[in-house]
Design brief:
about 130 residues; mainly alpha; single chain; about 60% helix
Length: about 130
Amino acid sequence: MLLSDYLRHRAALSRARGPLFLSESRRNLAGPLTLWTWSKVVRQVALAAGVPRFSTHTTRHLCLTDLARMGWELHAIATFAGHRSTGSTLRYIHLSGRELSAKLSSSMAQIHAWRVGMLTGDAGCPAGGVPA
């Protein structure tokens, strides 16, 4: 309902295609919001919602963390984020201890199965390779 109401309000400001959020200031009426203005709006909403640590950058952290949770390689996440260094990307990814433990358990199970296959001569295990 909120989005529907806003879209009607936006149409009253401008019917032109383009940015979703438009300025209502006299200096920039119906123009796109600047990054500075958008940051201030998000800050005010976060404070009103009682989440003072939320910012426009929070969603970036969430997106990159979600990509890591889905199994994206670190270099792919860094490229997506526009980072030159994977070190920068690592500062954005926030996996919980539970998530890291589950990933380690899964990886160790695969390695164990590969070792057993190598020792028993299991044909289902690629020669010299770790199973996918």
